Amino acid sequence: MSTSPVSSSGVAAPPSSAFGDAVIMLRRNVKHSVRNPVTVFNAILFPIIMMLMFVYVFGGAIRTGGDYLGYAVPGLVVMAVTYGLGPTATEVNDDLTKGVINRFKTMDVSRGAVLTGHVVSTTVRSLIAAVAIVGVGLAMGFRSSAGPLQWLAALGVVLLLAFAAGWLTVAMGLAAKTPAGAGLGTVPLIMLPFLSSAIVPADTMKTGVKQFAEYQPFTPVIETLRDLLTGHHPSAGHLLAALAWCIGFGLLGYVWAVATFSKRA
Fold first, then answer.
1. What is the pLDDT of residue 237?
2. Backbone torsions φ then ψ of 82, nearest 5 degrees
3. Quick check: 20 pLDDT over 80?
4. Which residue, 9, 43, 178, 200, shows the most beta carbons closer than 10 Å to its own?
């Protein structure tokens, strides 16, 4: 598939047409998400339930050197992003296996808009989930000393992570043979935050698990958010690693999605 917008006739679509097609695909995917209670639960409500459980049930037994709620919120924001990935992979594969994508290709629709619509809807859903986590955290007593620029930087990190993970998830959905297999393929992305510093400090973990937690993709993202939301300057090492992982995920997902789309659709 060409990386430039192409209509069904094979002629490059003008930017305005490609943007309009992407908006239409986004609106379609958002409507599907809203009408699917499982998607809403997994992407928004379940992360809130996890937050309540970790803070009120396990929080008293976990030592972080400070308020556990303040420690947990950044990690739970990242977990909220990953929990919304399963429905995206399933929806993409469902569109592919049921011939919906091929029907779009017979219409005068920008091919890039079909994939972009899924990625942007995933990003929007992730942002809503992150805002919900922070909002519930504030209601539970979470207080941040971050300034406006730090809040904007934290928002940028969340958007970058969600956008990159969205492309990777779309690629997984296109590559899977069935919708069930597509959802199963995202399980490692959902589970990785549990083996990071999201819930407990990596320093408290056993040898082996500790090293894995320190060098896996989500820990630098979580630590960067944690520094920003507590009003500190993020560690240069964590910030650079977070950006590198996000950009790497995004590029891998984009190239993989484009190649698979051209081959299977």
1. 94
2. -70, -30
3. no
4. 43
